[in-house]
Design brief:
single chain, mainly alpha, 4 helices, flat, NADH-ubiquinone oxidoreductase chain 3, ubiquinone
């Protein structure tokens, strides 16, 4: 029991020494006001809350989510390729990819992928 207590005290001491050395060596300033303030999409969080912003930020976020979900759906489709159900797998994959391509083409025609106009 006594050796277990000494073991825990040594571990605590080592952790304390390492934490103190990290604090001493690091170049990070604790009083940096820019790093301690929250980042809200490039806007000042203390400014007027009803300030209008470009809808383009919202569109880019939605496009990102669509393609993120696409990857989440396509990867398991590739991993579950089964030769017995090849026709069903191929049909569903092609329909899904076709719908995504049509959506991408629609976004491209409407200029949603252009950052500046």
């Amino acid at each position: 029991m006594n050796s277990l207590f000494i073991f825990f005290v040594l571990i605590f001491l080592i952790l304390f020494i390492i934490s103190f050395l990290i604090l001493l060596i690091s170049k990070k300033s604790l009083m940096d006001s820019q790093k301690s303030s929250p980042f809200e999409c490039g806007f000042n969080p203390m400014a007027d809350k009803r300030m209008p912003f470009s809808i383009h930020f919202f569109l880019i976020a939605v496009i990102f989510l669509v393609f993120d979900i696409e990857i989440i759906i396509i990867l398991p489709m590739i991993l579950t390729l089964n030769t017995t159900l090849l026709f069903f797998w191929l049909t569903s994959s092609l329909i899904f990819i076709f719908i995504l391509c049509v959506g991408l083409y629609y976004e491209w025609l409407n200029g949603m992928l252009n950052w500046t106009k």
